[in-house]
Design the sequence.
């Protein structure tokens, strides 16, 4: 294991060798995979000291993967909060880029709402919402400069065995700039169904973009529905539009 001064990025804690992480994940075996997506794969691993970790292996040779790697190391190394996932370290080895996090054992909110995680009672849903909100508020209000996550969604909210929420995946995050700036102009990134309409149309990113996305997560918690569900009747596929139509119906009825 190497210290950051041997070529580390930002203020991250530890630099692992590729061999250490290969050993920790049993050679990046398929049995160790926790999840995969466009960015690459996440593996469960056990370090030599017995610590359980999650190892994200980004796709090699990808410019986007390199940008996400640097953004995540730079940004997540700035934050320390019980409701944000903790970065243990990282690895740069030729074309390989890997990130090492504390392992959070109870999967994602998406899994519990839409997968095979079983039914969540209302007290647990409120607990998860409050925890994720505290993590997001820390990014927006207590970090200097402020941090905009840019990809808040139920699959990026991890849960521990006590259903304490931890916001994860800072690969698309951006620093909000100085306190006088009103927005950051950027290429639109994020996940369909969670994107704030004004951000999607203008590319002007603010903390409110995260708040909108978190609002969609709250609707998921309340309704149990996915943000976009093609199995729903025509016109009801979008969770936000479906809820809006129900709300307008109630308002018109009360009038």
Sequence:
């Amino acid at each position: 294991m190497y210290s950051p001064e041997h070529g580390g990025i930002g203020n991250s804690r530890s630099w692992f060798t590729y061999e250490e992480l290969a050993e920790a994940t049993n050679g990046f075996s398929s049995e160790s995979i926790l999840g995969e997506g466009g960015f690459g794969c996440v593996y469960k691993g056990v370090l030599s000291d017995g610590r359980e970790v999650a190892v994200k292996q980004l796709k090699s040779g990808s410019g986007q993967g390199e940008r996400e790697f640097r953004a995540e190391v730079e940004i997540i190394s700035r934050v320390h909060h019980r409701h944000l996932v903790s970065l243990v370290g990282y690895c740069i080895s030729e074309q390989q880029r890997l990130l090492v996090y504390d392992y959070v054992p109870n999967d994602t909110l998406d899994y519990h709402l839409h997968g095979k995680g079983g039914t969540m009672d209302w007290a647990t849903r409120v607990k998860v919402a409050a925890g994720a909100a505290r993590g997001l508020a820390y990014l927006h209000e207590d970090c200097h400069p402020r941090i905009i996550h840019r990809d808040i969604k139920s699959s990026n909210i991890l849960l521990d065995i006590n259903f304490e929420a931890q916001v994860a995946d800072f690969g698309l995050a951006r620093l909000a700039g100085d306190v006088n700036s009103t927005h950051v102009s950027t290429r639109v990134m994020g996940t369909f169904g969670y994107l704030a309409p004004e951000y999607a149309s203008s590319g002007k990113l603010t903390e409110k973009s995260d708040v909108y996305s978190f609002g969609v997560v709250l609707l998921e918690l309340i309704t149990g529905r996915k943000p976009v569900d093609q199995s729903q009747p025509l016109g009801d596929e979008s969770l936000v539009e479906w809820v809006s139509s129900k709300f307008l119906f109630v308002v018109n009825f009360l009038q």
